[in-house]
Amino acid sequence: MKNRLRVLRAEREWSQADLAERLEVSRQSVNAIETGKYDPSLPLAFKLARLFGTTIEAIFDDENQ
Amino acid sequence: MNCIGKSQAVRIFLYRFAAMLLANVVFFTFTFIAFYRFQPKGMAAYLLAVLPALPIVGVLGVFALYLKEEQDDFQRSVMIQSILWSTGLLLAATNVWGFLEKFLHTPHIQMIFVFPLFCAFWAVVIPLVQRRYK
Predict the structure, then answer these.
(1) Cα–Cα distance between B133 and A36 in angstroms, integer?
(2) Helical (H) or strand (E) element with A9
(3) What is d(CA B58, CA B7) in angstroms, rounded to the nearest whole number?
(4) What is the pTM of this model?
(5) What is the complex's ipTM, to 2 decimals?
(6) Domain range spanning residue B46?
(7) With an 8 Å Cβ cutoff, are B133 and A38 in contact?
(8) Chain B residues 74-133 with CB within 8 Å of chain A
(9) DSSP H helical segments within B1-134, as ranges?
(10) Which domains can be identified in chain A, with CATH numbers?
(11) How many domains, chain B?
(12) pLDDT digit string (tens) for B22-33?
């Protein structure tokens, strides 16, 4: 699934490791989500949205819609 | 095992897994020696044969506990995929070898080596699954 995670992270000058620490997941998880190779669970998607102060739809682009 | 992350769940998993492997090696060796030395029969032989299988059941429990305790969905997914792939490879390899044994008379592999083979497949598969996401 396409997403704006890399952009949002770059805006805050966070590394993948910084974001992973804030989300309490591994850096590999952040990388896999950013590259669209892994779709996060709903709780993690909500966590991301809360962390960036936005909505899930603003981060993730459901291409099937 | 750096390849599956360093969460608390992974650390606990590795300790438990190592303990089960150690128990398996100890029970395996003990059973081997006991069968050769005492040549038990009947119920004693059955009980002795079950002994090294107990840590194998334990390993499945260790996998299940990890999947329950790991909070990182991605790492959980990597573990599930690696278990499925290594189980699939094990089933395929033993099936292929079974036919080769039957029809081409290749050397017989005893079933007591199936679990070590699973562990070997799993150790190879985990970094490969992880690599998919790099």
Answers:
(1) 9
(2) helix A5-11
(3) 21
(4) 0.84
(5) 0.82
(6) 2-131
(7) yes
(8) 74-75, 77, 130, 132-133
(9) 8-38, 42-50, 53-69, 73-104, 114-131
(10) 2-55 (1.10.260.40)
(11) 1
(12) 999 999 999 999
